[in-house]
Specification:
mainly alpha; about 100 residues; single chain
């Protein structure tokens, strides 16, 4: 399971009053199988013993419907999403300030 990433800049106003978490609003689902050699699997476990896919799935099942919909309905977000960027990467970032999971 993967989530599409959308990044461009949107000004959210002073103190980012309306900044919230929009986890899972634009999900793309696909199945993909990876086969790792034993050595590769050991290296992956050494790099990080954490299993983020399990944490992500847990967070998704506890998500409330409609959380963050306000952001997707904002004119600034719609304009950002449909804009064709000729100006480089500075126009390709959507920054929402806030603590993770507070939205």
């Amino acid at each position: 399971m993967a989530e599409a990433t959308y990044t461009r800049s949107v000004t959210m106003g002073d103190n980012n009053v309306n900044c919230n978490n929009t986890t899972g609003s634009f999900n793309n689902t696909f199945n993909q199988t990876f086969t790792l050699s034993d050595e590769d699997a050991q290296i992956m476990r050494w790099i990080s013993p954490l299993e983020p896919q399990h944490r992500h799935q847990g967070v998704r099942t506890e998500r409330f419907d409609g959380v963050g919909d306000w952001l997707l309905e904002m004119k600034e977000f719609r304009d950002w999403r449909t804009r064709r960027s000729d100006g480089g990467t500075d126009e390709a970032v959507l920054f929402c300030f806030g603590n993770p999971g507070v939205g």
